[in-house]
From TrEMBL:
Domain of life: Eukaryota
Entry-linked CDD domains: AdoMet_MTases (cd02440)
GO CC entries: cytoplasm; female pronucleus; male pronucleus; protein-containing complex
Protein name as catalogued: Histone-arginine methyltransferase METTL23
Entry EC number(s): 2.1.1.319
Family to which this protein belongs: Belongs to the methyltransferase superfamily. METTL23 family.
Broad class of the protein's primary localization: cytoplasm
Length: 190
């Protein structure tokens, strides 16, 4: 497990908005080492961490992150995108859903948005705060967002001081352009 550059940028966005987090219900999907969710919990949010129910080692990494950060009370649940499960059905309404670098494989995009749509049905004012690494100019969420009656706002990194070299730098080879999005239901669906 690795803290990817997208997680650092999303954590910076959370830190920038830390005064609005106390008491918010926040779910991190695809959490892995859970940096954004852990930070949100440290800022006073009521956080649930999740990763794939098909990858028990990822769920264990979430639990280890909780213990290492003195947050053993955080709930960790297995959610597999696009699948209805008891854990998904049992989740309370969320104010914010965090997703760091989950838009990785285009074949998963619709399953992710299906899960987000289901979660947002419980609280139509919920938002998905997501960072992703630009991997291909051919990949787009636009058609899927339209299909699921969602809208997306691109958040410039400089608006929350995440445009600095040391924020999202990585020892991994290649270019690491990170983007920040806030996704919500389109206005006419509320």
């Amino acid at each position: 497990m690795y803290v990817w550059p997208c997680a650092v940028v999303l954590a910076q966005y959370l830190w920038f908005h830390r005064r609005s987090l106390p008491g918010k219900a926040i779910l991190e999907i695809g959490a892995g080492v859970s940096l954004p969710g852990i930070l949100a919990a440290k800022c006073g949010a009521e956080v649930i961490l999740s990763d794939s129910s098909e990858l028990p080692h990822c769920l264990e990494v979430c639990r280890q992150s909780c213990h290492m950060n003195n947050l053993p009370q955080l709930q960790v649940v297995g959610l597999t995108w696009g699948h209805v499960s008891w854990d998904l059905l049992a989740l309370p309404p969320q104010d914010i859903i965090l997703a760091s670098d989950v838009f990785f494989e285009p074949e998963d995009f619709e399953d992710i948005l299906t899960t987000i749509y289901f979660l947002m049905q419980k609280n139509p004012k919920a938002q998905l705060w997501s960072t992703y690494q630009v991997r291909s100019a051919d990949w787009s969420l636009e058609a899927l967002l339209y299909k699921w009656d969602m809208k997306c706002v691109h958040i410039p990194l400089e608006s929350f001081d995440a445009d600095k070299e040391d924020i999202a730098e990585s020892a991994l080879p290649g270019r690491h352009t990170v983007e920040m999005l806030v996704i919500s239901f389109a206005k006419d669906s509320l």
